[in-house]
Amino acid sequence: MSGHPHDHGVSGGAPGLSEGRLLLAVAVNVGLTVVQVAGGLLSGSLSLVADALHNFGDAGALLIAWVARRIGRRPADAVQTFGYRRAELVGALINATTLNVLGLYLIYAATLRAFDPPPVAGWTVIAVAGVALAVDLGTAWLTHAMARDSLNVRAAFLHNITDALGSVAVIVAGMLILRFQLYLADVVATLAIAGYALYHGVAITRQAGRILALGVPVDVQVPALARALRGLDGVADVHHLHVWALDESQRSFEGHVVIERQDAVLAERVKRLVRAVLARHGITHSTIECEYGVTSDECREGEVVAPH
Considering the chain, what is the average pLDDT of its residues? Predict the structure, then answer.
């Protein structure tokens, strides 16, 4: 006997508006990248080129998010019975990998330049970084509303905020160059931008990778969940527990619940109680199998040990 409440709908509203904002944000970031690269080459500023490459990565991330959202809205079919919602997680991993590689490259380039910092045109750096700061804040505003229900878009939003901070760092470096001829400030700003890129890249990789690998959500402790289920009225034991996330918004549960006696009414009541406990952990999809007189040792294969 099992319970199967299902909800495979795709989250997010106003798809046309959301996707239109993403495309606008892509166009804005590509335009900004061109301006920053030109300014960086004219001024000799590595930090400005670094910020430009980061913005170009943001444009790519936004484009991936746009494609992934369109794929993710496709309904479930005979090939993908869970639907296509995980497309955004794949996009997030691609984006995170790009950020990690970019961050490592910038650290390498900045380290080489640290031994012989070349002259940098401070006013050009400040002017272009000021434009970048305004564009980064505008792009963050475009993506803020969509960041709540999409790891891809949330990553892009965080990148834009990071870019805004990077632009501030570049402006400060330009001022130090103008005031003190401290050309090493450009190297320091580059390292700061690289550090931010790696920080977010690693965080996204871990979050998306955990979901794709069917890992338990970070805020769910399976042993504690098992103890809560065993404490329910009418439950003799639980075993074969599995908790995973289909994407960042839908969590699933599978488990065997041993009830005290063979009673269909009791079984239905126990399943309602179990679902109430699962709901407190944000689990919206469950497969519950009720058993009678089965010891947990008879069904241990593939189970995470959940001590009493």
Answer: 79
Most confident of 96-100, 112-116, 168-172: 96-100
pLDDT classification of 54: cutoffs 50, 70, 90 = low
Share of the chain above pLDDT 70, in %: 81
Q: Residue written as tokens 């900004």? A: 32
Tokens at 74, concatenated? 């496709």
Sheet holding 251-259, edge to edge: 2-3, 283-292, 251-259, 235-245
CB 84 within 8 A of CB 16: no
For residue 262, count other CB atoms closer than 10 A to its CB. Answer: 12
Does the structure show a pLDDT above 80 at 18?
Answer: no
Of 276, 213, 214, 263, the residue nearest 236 (C-alpha):
263
List Cα–Cα distances, 122 to 44, 139, 164, 167, in angstroms. Answer: 9, 26, 18, 13
Average pLDDT over residues 268-285: 94
d(CA 247, CA 253): 13
Task: Pick the more confident residue, 272 or 128.
Answer: 272
Using CA atoms, how far residue 59 sits from 96, 136, 152, 258, in Å, is 13, 11, 12, 52
Q: At what angle do helices 15-43 and 122-144 cross, to 10 degrees?
A: 170
Domains of the chain: 13-212 (1.20.1510.10), 222-299 (3.30.70.1350)
Q: Bridge partners of 290?
A: 257
Q: 201-231 b/e with 16+ CB inside 10 Å = b?
A: beebbebbebbeeeebbeebebeebbebbbe
pLDDT for the residue 223? 95
Cα–Cα distances (Å) from 173 to 102, 132, 137, 141, 185, in that order, read 21, 15, 20, 26, 5
